[in-house]
């Protein structure tokens, strides 16, 4: 079925935080807003943003793993993820990896359902020492699911909130904007013409590198 050109672009963020309020949800919100702002500035289609909070679906996820039948709320969340034009996946770090709730949810996603879908991966933790979870755990997970994991991943330690970085490192707001911009460019290229948007100097020097080369670099944001 052909999707009308006027159909909205859909950005879905999955947040696996367990507390309320949650720094994981906050990071998901900020990444989604960065992508939405860039998409709104670069094209005319309406942009819809949805955040899926896994803490509200924990019991449904466990039941589905046992019975094989998803309740309505979980089915809606899975449909939102697989139907999104762009995906943001954010987990807290537990025992040097993604949380069990995060992994259990994505265990329910068919391994072909995210094929070609652009994904920003992100994580939160108490210390910067866990930042490599993005590369040794999350990137392989979404590679297995055949998604296109974007070059800039975002890790937010407790000390990163409110920090603008220094002369050697980008602060968290800058990394969020860069990741959101990459997602917007990937979504626009995939849904409009199948080709990446021509980068401009306003995007920064990273955007001037061909997209395929950025993927090969696998830089940690």
Estimated share of beta-strand residues: 15-25%
N-to-C series of helices and strands: EHEHHEEHEHEEHH
Classification by helices and strands: alpha/beta
Mean pLDDT: 84
| Main β sheet profile | 7 strands, mixed
Q: How many helices?
A: 7
Low-confidence stretches: 191-221
Q: Helical content, roughly? A: 40-55%
Q: Determine Rg (CA atoms, Å).
A: 17 Å
Would you report the number of β strands? 7
Task: Give a brief rundown of this model.
The protein has 221 residues and is α/β, with parallel strands linked by helices.
What is this structure's SSE topology?
Layout lengths: L8 E7 L7 H20 L4 E7 L4 H10 L4 H12 L2 E9 L2 E2 L1 H8 L10 E8 L7 H12 L3 E2 L4 E4 L14 H22 L17 H7 L4
Parallel strand pairs: 1-2, 1-3, 3-5, 5-6, 5-7
Antiparallel strand pairs: 3-4
Helix pairs in contact: 1-6
Describe the model.
The protein has helices at 23-42, 58-67, 72-83, 100-107, 133-144, 172-193, 211-217, and strands at residues 9-15, 47-53, 86-94, 97-98, 118-125, 148-149, 154-157. The protein is α/β, with parallel strands linked by helices and 221 residues long. The relative contact order is 0.15. Helix 1 (23-42) packs across helix 6.
Task: Supply the key terms.
alpha/beta, 7-stranded mixed β-sheet, 41% helix, single chain, 221 residues, 18% strand, 7 strands, 7 helices
């Amino acid at each position: 079925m052909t999707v009308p050109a006027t159909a909205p672009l859909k950005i879905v963020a999955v947040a696996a935080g367990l507390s309320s309020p949650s720094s994981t949800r906050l990071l998901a919100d900020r990444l989604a807003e960065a992508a939405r702002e860039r998409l709104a500035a670069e094209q005319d289609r309406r942009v819809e943003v949805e955040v899926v909070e896994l803490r509200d679906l924990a019991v449904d996820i466990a039941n589905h793993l046992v019975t094989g039948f998803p309740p309505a709320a979980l089915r809606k969340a899975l449909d939102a993820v697989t139907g999104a034009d762009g995906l943001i996946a954010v987990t807290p770090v537990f025992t040097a990896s993604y949380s069990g709730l995060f992994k259990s949810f994505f265990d329910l996603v068919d391994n072909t359902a995210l094929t070609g879908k652009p994904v920003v991966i992100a994580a939160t933790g108490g210390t910067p020492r866990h930042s490599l979870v993005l590369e040794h755990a999350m990137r392989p997970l979404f590679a297995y699911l055949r998604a296109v994991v974007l070059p800039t991943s975002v890790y937010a330690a407790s000390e990163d909130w409110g920090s603008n970085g220094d002369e050697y490192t980008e602060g968290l707001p800058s990394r969020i904007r860069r990741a959101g911009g990459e997602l917007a460019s990937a979504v626009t290229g995939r849904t409009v013409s199948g080709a990446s948007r021509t980068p401009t100097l306003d995007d920064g020097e990273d955007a001037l590198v061909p997209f395929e080369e950025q993927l090969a670099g696998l830089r940690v944001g």
